[in-house]
Amino acid sequence: MLARPPVAGNARYRTEGDTLLLAGVLDRDAVVSLWPQLARGLGATRSLDLQAVERVDSAGLALLAELAARLRAQGGGRLVGAPAGLEELSAAYRLSPSLDFNASSAGS
Asked: What are the C-alpha distances in Å from 80 to residues 9, 19, 53, 56, 108?
């Protein structure tokens, strides 16, 4: 298990097996701090655990969508948990439950 120190308030992450566990508030400040670390590579990560995420804003959603896309490209992409704000923002940006662009809803 690889633990990371808290960043930007209380946002943090760690890996456990093939799961990336995120925690805290994923807002703009957290994304600015987390992204350089997470962009270096996800290794063997196949799923995102969001159960300890308190809430997300649009910047947090963008981070999660990018991470999910990278995991899908590696043959993974499973999401666990739905923090406050995720469902509403996903609907507003027409993202599927897996945080993928849902082209079928683009015309509605």
From this structure: 23, 10, 11, 15, 28
pTM recorded for the entire structure = 0.84
Q: Which is nearest to 48 in space by CA: 25, 81, 84?
A: 81
CATH architecture of 2-101: 2-Layer Sandwich (3.30)
> How does pLDDT run across 33-78, given as a tens digit for each residue?
999 989 887 888 999 999 999 999 999 999 999 999 999 999 998 9
Backbone phi and psi for residue 65, each to the nearest 5 degrees, phi listed first: -65, -40
- Residue 92, CA distances (Å) to 83, 95, 101 in order: 16, 8, 11
User: Which strands make up the sheet holding 2-3, listed edge to edge?
Assistant: 2-3, 12-16, 19-26, 47-56, 78-80
Q: Where are the alpha helices (DSSP H) in 1-108?
A: 28-39, 58-73, 86-92
**How buried is 75 (Cβ within 10 angstroms: 0-12 exposed, 13-18 middle, 19+ buried)?**
exposed
